[in-house]
Amino acid sequence: MLEPPKPTGKPPTPVTLAGKVMPWARGQPVLLEMPMSIWRYLPLFDSPESLSVFLTKAEVEWESIKQVDDVPEFLSNFDGTDIKIICDPRFTDTGRIRFHQIQ
What we know:
The longest helix has 10 residues, at 48-57. This protein has a 4-stranded mixed β-sheet. It has one domain (21-101). It has 103 residues and is an alpha+beta fold. Helix content is 16%, strand content 31%. A hairpin with a 5-residue loop joins strand 6 and strand 7 (97-101). The chain is built from 2 helices and 7 strands. It has helices spanning 48-57, 71-76, and strands at residues 21-25, 28-29, 32-33, 40-44, 64-67, 83-91, 97-101.
């Protein structure tokens, strides 16, 4: 009898959304699109500096930065949408994008 598949990689780590920052432009959050994906992604970052580094490299424009204060209210804005919330997107050495998906 074969054994069931086992998870690989690191176990999920808890992510705190309070205090994360997001890019803002034209009165709304800046959303990312990725090749081969039907979803749009709202990136959240630990700091304005990490936001700036990533979006500059990705050639994405933004006007200002907003901070997540009320997490339940923030998340309720995305219920039933095709938007996925991601934390700490970053480029790998090979140019791929890695992130933690929240929803």
